[in-house]
Amino acid sequence: MKVCWTPATRIGCRNENRDSANYCLFCGRPLSGALRLLNPGDVLQAKYEVTRVVGFGGNGAVYAVQDRSAGNAERALKESIDPEQREQFAVEADVLRPLDHPNLPRVYDRFTAGNRDYMLMEFVPGRSLEEVIQERARQNLPPLDENVVIGYAIQICHALEYLHRREPHPVIHRDIKPANIRITPHGELKLVDFGLVKRLDTDNPATHRLAQGLTPVYAPPEQWGLIEGRHTDPRSDIYSLAATLYHLLTGTGPSSALDRIAGRGGRLNSEEPLVPPRSLNPNISTRVERALMKALSVHPDDRFPTARELRAALSMGSDTLHIARQR
User: Fold this and answer.
1) pTM over 0.85
2) Which domains, and CATH codes, for the chain?
């Protein structure tokens, strides 16, 4: 099928059209540069049958497929249509494939077909935390309860502890945000979309991808290249997780690191213009506010050094926690 949406320009009404269509049936735009998607019923590698399109973006789509080699189990098939992203797509698959953690998706296969790259993954039902935030905003509901959010934080911290302890190279996600955390109907969280992932090589910590593809509100300053001599490391993921928790607890994201540093005249040694979360939601405990403010420090040395320490700071003295079902 053709989608009325051009990846290069991100323009179009996003409606689906037949493969033979030259103009969009819905808005009349020409479909010469439109995104081409697989059709339900298409079979790849003689065993992965497409059942539906889950979503699509500038680098391709995600499909729900039936895996004939595994009793028609439902899987997610992630697609990459950009040849320039092939190397990073391979890194993502190679990093994920050996991982085995309840809060991370499993990867089963990687292959190329029709000049497109594919990754077969565990299908994660439910919705993203971004969708949870948006739904609560539409319904004029208050932010999530603190204990619920801490329960979420503990799960993701466990995943980060696992990733950051990988040998021989720790794994840095580098794109933690509400859209990349899914919650299942049973309340289990999965950290997904490792499209910006990197293995941390302490002998050569630099990366050439810096700000490419990041989401400003959740990205730490070192990911923008704003701190001389500093590169992303486990503390970068801690910053992004804290920004996500801040958003869940207040209903609004924190000021971006870029704005915070620009607001200080580019200096890192003055007081941070970060709105304390309790001023937005007085139901947040002082303990959690302190933990978030520390984790969101502009300079990496001022943050928690490990996800384990962030988890301890958030959960210390809290009420009995449970994995909450999505609402």
Assistant:
1) yes
2) 37-122 (3.30.200.20), 127-315 (1.10.510.10)
